[in-house]
TrEMBL record:
GO terms for molecular function: dolichyl-phosphate-mannose-protein mannosyltransferase activity. This is dolichyl-phosphate-mannose--protein mannosyltransferase. Keywords: Endoplasmic reticulum, Membrane, Repeat, TPR repeat, Transferase, Transmembrane, Transmembrane helix. It is a multi-pass membrane protein. The keyword rRNA-binding does not apply. Belongs to the TMTC family. GO terms for cellular component: endoplasmic reticulum; membrane. Pathway: Protein modification; protein glycosylation.
Length: 689
């Protein structure tokens, strides 16, 4: 989520033209994930919290998951017990125990941890909330349906609108319209799918008797499908430039040349998603970048997983179609519907997706899993002689899930724990090693970070971000040759990688290859027009080459693009000061302090200029203010001492020289100035005596 979209100064209308990550939808680089209502809730969170304080964001996620889990009792009572109303129009719960068990299983399923503990999981939670409200709203359309002939058009339209809202929270939301149609056919119209297929195959014209045209089913399905098509068309128009562009590392199977390889691997991914629902022990925040190597041959033992998946699915589908028990047919079909239909947008069947496996996308499909699991348990309990053992087993599963949720949530509490937890699950994932390395680098542990960055590059030799970060660390350690090689390779692989071009320029500048450095900086700016840090570094290059006007222009560009760029302001003041342009330096310093009033380094630089201009009182005030903000800066005390020395306040000069030398005994020039002052004080004492 873009921080900029959460700030009050960003117009609310911009949310409807940006993707989930803050890029314009019309941009070719946009992710195309259009979730304006989710971003709006983040903005409200930000407004009430008064900034980026995570507690409020997490609390809302927890409340949403709890609300969804409570709604699940109603949803599961319909899926497992059917839809029936009392004479007063109140819906009856015909499966209170099994619906409660299914809701508990859903509430504590460890695979949901990512959605609840990860703030961006809000999209899945909001989508699920309106998804369920749409389903329950559709059920309300049949409250007055004594004989099954009447329905409320109002509630059908409300259901479509809630489906549209769900889609504005996350794309999966649109699938509720298909599920409502399935529910209408199976539960409201009691349609026998196998019987209908047989009649169609035999060209039987008595389809009305099969329930297809009874009770307004075709009309309602047409309404649902028309609503869905309209919503999808509007969304497609808003997207502007077609589907997003993903890279091979995001979803390698979708880039395979062979249709066979693509099909085998897609099915393997489905089996892994199913396994995460059955046994959510190996959880990972990211499954891309080589985490799951491609299956390229039928001799690969992993083929067993997809064979097992389809064996189970075909068995369930046969039971759902062929069972003589209509209650069993209905539950199995609805369970499979809720398992499969919400997963379709993530299946790669209709369009390429930007991930291999994502735990968040099985938040909704887990509803179907809970239906099938609970129904299986109820069948077992009817046949089991020792029901207590079965009850203890189910309670054990719930307890294990609670413990797993608590443990997984603790891993989400910090980046370090989250990234390291992924190393054991996906040791071949270059992004995991990259993230561990970045976390270590941020903490100042460069040696360890280098190890993980090197491993990330080894696992993925085209991982330009890892090369860039590794090159940066090597640059700071003065290993300039290797840094240049890495950064040159990064821009060769990705020629529009502006940050790598800038860092390459910094390395080339350090190697005194000034022409190449200038070219690299301008290439970076060509690919990223608004790049204040690059203008700042370009200014430093020009200053080194004594091209003072070019340096000032570059730094001015940096401050125009980023008014709070303290380093650029400081360098302008210092350069103007050093070249004797005191009036201009003073003007720039005052302009900078108006924009960044609490920056002590700017106070210090301007105080130096004012001191040279003999504006001692104002200079003193700024020095003291800077020292108050940063009392341990030896240079601040040393330069204030020089000011007092010039001004003739020798006692105060002596005091601040001594403080400066105490903080930094090797401070350049301070010791000499202090000795000069002491000799002057001694001479004054001799004259006085």
């Amino acid at each position: 989520v873009s921080f900029q979209d959460l700030r009050a100064e960003t117009p609310l209308g911009d949310l409807w033209h940006h993707d989930f990550w803050g890029s314009k939808l019309s941009s070719n680089t946009s992710h195309k994930s259009y979730r304006p209502l989710t971003v709006l809730t983040f903005r409200i969170n930000y407004l009430f919290a008064g900034g980026f304080y995570p507690v409020g964001f997490h609390v809302i996620n927890i409340i949403l998951h709890c609300t969804i889990s409570v709604l699940m009792v109603d949803v599961f009572s319909i899926l497992l017990g059917g839809l029936q109303f009392s004479n007063k129009g109140r819906r009856l719960n015909l499966a209170p125990k099994t619906s409660l068990l299914a809701a508990l299983l859903f509430a504590v399923h460890p695979v949901h941890t990512e959605c609840v503990a990860g703030i961006v999981g809000r999209a899945d939670l909001l989508c699920a909330l309106f998804f369920l409200l749409s389903f329950l709203g559709y059920c309300k359309a049949f409250r007055e349906n004594k004989e099954g002939h009447n329905f409320s058009m109002f509630w059908v339209l409300v259901s479509v609108i809630l489906g549209a809202i769900a889609m504005l929270c996350k794309e999966q939301g649109i699938t509720i319209l298909g599920l409502n149609a399935v529910f209408d056919a199976l539960v409201i119209n009691k349609l026998n799918v196998l019987e209908l297929i047989q009649k169609l195959l035999h060209k039987d014209k008595s389809l009305e008797n099969a329930g297809l045209l009874r009770k307004g089913l075709l009309f309602r399905i047409t309404l649902l499908m028309s609503g869905g098509a309209s919503i999808l068309y509007i969304r497609w128009r808003i997207m502007g430039t077609g589907p997003p562009a993903f890279t091979e590392v995001d979803n390698p199977a979708s880039f395979a040349d062979s249709l066979f390889v693509r099909a085998i691997n897609y099915n393997y991914y489905y089996s892994l998603n199913a396994w995460l629902l059955l046994c959510p022990w190996w959880l990972c925040f990211d499954w891309s970048m080589g985490c799951i190597p491609l299956i390229k041959s039928v001799s690969d033992w992993r083929i067993i997983a997809l064979v097992a998946l389809w064996f189970c699915l075909i068995g369930l589908i046969c039971q759902a179609l062929c069972s003589e028990d209509s209650h069993k047919r209905r539950i199995l079909t609805l369970g499979l519907g809720f398992l499969i239909i919400p997963f379709l947008p993530a299946s790669n069947l209709f369009f390429r997706v930007g991930f291999v496996i994502a735990e968040r996308v099985i938040y909704l499909p887990s509803i179907g899993y809970c239906v099938l699991f609970t129904y299986g348990f109820s069948l077992l309990s009817k046949q089991a002689k020792k029901k207590k053992i079965l009850a203890v087993a189910v309670l054990g599963i719930l307890l294990i899930n609670v413990m797993r949720c608590a443990f997984r949530s603790s891993q989400w509490r910090s980046e370090e724990q989250l990234f390291r937890s992924a190393l054991s699950v996906c040791p071949l994932n270059a992004k995991v090693h990259y993230n561990v390395g970045k976390n270590l680098a941020d903490k100042g542990n460069q040696s360890a970070a280098i190890k993980y960055y090197r491993e990330a590059v080894r696992l993925n030799p085209k991982y330009v971000h890892a090369m860039n970060n590794l090159g940066n660390i090597l640059k700071e350690r003065n290993e300039l040759q290797e840094a240049e090689e890495l950064l040159s390779l990064a821009v060769q692989i990705q020629p529009d990688f502006a940050a790598a071009w800038m860092n390459l320029g910094i390395v080339q500048n350090s190697l005194r290859r000034f022409e190449a450095a200038e070219q690299s900086y301008w290439t970076a700016i060509k690919h990223r027009k608004k790049y204040p840090d690059c203008y700042y570094n370009l200014g430093r290059l020009y200053a080194d080459l004594n091209r003072h006007i070019d340096a000032l222009n570059a730094w001015r560009n940096a401050t125009v693009l980023k008014p709070e760029h303290s380093l650029a302001w400081n360098n302008m003041i210092i350069l103007l000061d050093n070249t004797g342009n005191l009036a201009q330096a003073e003007a720039v310093g005052r302009e900078a302090l108006e924009l960044i009033p609490n920056d002590h380094s700017l106070m210090f630089s301007l105080a130096n200029v004012l001191g040279k201009s003999q504006k001692y009182k104002e200079s003193e005030a700024l020095f003291l203010k800077a020292i108050k903000a940063n009392p341990n800066a030896a240079s601040y005390h040393g330069n204030l001492a020089v000011l007092y020395h010039r001004w003739g306040n020798l006692d105060l000069a002596k005091k601040h020289y001594e403080v400066s030398l105490k903080l930094d005994p090797m401070a350049p020039g301070t010791k000499e100035n202090y000795n000069l002052l002491r000799r002057k004080l001694e001479q004054l004492q001799k004259k006085g005596s």
